[in-house]
Amino acid sequence: MSEDTLIIYEEETRQIETLLSKMLKGAEAKCALLVDKDGHLISRQGFTQSLDTTALAALLAGSFASTKEIARLVGEDEFSVLFHQGKKDHIHMSLVGDRSILVVVFDDRTTIGMVRLYAKEVAVELAKVFDQIRENAKKEGGKSGISDDFASMAQDRLDDIFQD
Amino acid sequence: MVSINYSAREVCCKIVYYGPGLSGKTTNLQYVHSKVPGNTRGDLISLATEADRTLYFDFLPINIGTINGFAAKFQLYTVPGQVYYNATRKLVLRGVDGVVFVADSQPDKMDENIESLINLEENLREYGYDIDNMPLVIQYNKRDLPGVMPVADLDARLNPKGRHTFEASATVGNGVFDTLKLIIKLVLDKAKSGGTTSSTRPSLETNPVAHKPQPVAAVAEETPIQAVASPQPPSPPPSAPTAQANESAATDASQQPSFDEPLLGGPANASAPPMPQAEAPQTMPSQATPVADSSDYRPYPGDRKKYPESPTPAAIETPQSHPVTESPSMERPVPESDMDQIESSRPSMAPPLKRRKTEKKRGFFKRLFGIK
Question: Which ipTM did the prediction report?
Fold first, then answer.
């Protein structure tokens, strides 16, 4: 499982945010989320105040995962792009590297073509950032988790919250 | 995988409730959702059929608040229990940190329990997880029903390896929180086994390729951890979902200004008009119009957006039109207040220009025909 390790430093975080921001401006989209395939939100940019990004990330990852199975059934590895069209807002999802999903929410102020174009460009850049992250992780080889006191404090908090 | 996000200062774990159909997985989540304070949990999202059978998964995010500067978040998932939903059930297991196996205590459900347990082991193996190393709690549910199997028999059939078990009755909530607390404890115990998260990076280097960073976040032996590092000081401990909302609002608020910046590159930037151009409509009205157009919406090649009707010369002339031509914000291309100003300026500004044009034309014809 160690090859699944993903460690992102602040430089990479900034790079990711800059790339997402640039893509948003170029494509004139509303917001962009970077979600990993497990459903965790990695980064977000744009107008996301009104969105429940936690739930959105989980559902989008689930949606992407289900299409992967569909792809497998029709003989594809996976579908790299997914598009949901609504009346006003639309969602474009594309694969970044092999473990992340770029989600762009946009409306009729821009076009699907523009979003695709910019998403494709930025996906290449983001994939490079993730490659860099992976290389750094390999070089590091260090492992750390959460501290002992974190676990014990969490346990105390749980006792307070979860009371019948 | 346990996700430690140093940028957002949060630790996130994924816990999956597994088990045969109708064993009470969704009921567990519903009970947690109903009893946990509103500021601690998010919405319960249920992808279910019309008959309330889970089709894909149920999802309940829980935020127990800030601990050591980190918001501790847990994402609770359930899987569809029916045998024929195995494909979707497997998908939910991706990146799991801990599993609660909800078994039905009724004797006639024993075969289904065993089948589901074997299926769990198989699906975990497909992701490369070993069920023996996975935090697992077995919950014997429906203990309130008459004629249920004794716990000793259940243990003999379902728990030969002596994993943690709880008796529960999810509809009334018996054992639900005990199960959840224990699985969270097991998950955190496993995550902490790798070391500490206290190290921070001494300095930021501009060249990410060249630097040899010290780990700011890393991963436990068995559990892959995804971490987004940022040595910023911990945000003041907000309380739970409100905290999440605040955090997202703060993040977004800090991002908003970027939308007001001019565009980077592209044809839009190239055509961004300096104001003097827009102020020369009298000498070159035919050129001023397209320039003002392009500045309004930062178009790109093949742009099909709805431009305003070709702006009146008055709008181009007036200084009030500046915000319109400068505003790159897609959300608010023209502030309403500015629009009002422009609108109100039209009647007063248009006549003089019209008059000037008419006089110019009249002068031309007078000269042409020698009229005095």
Answer: 0.81
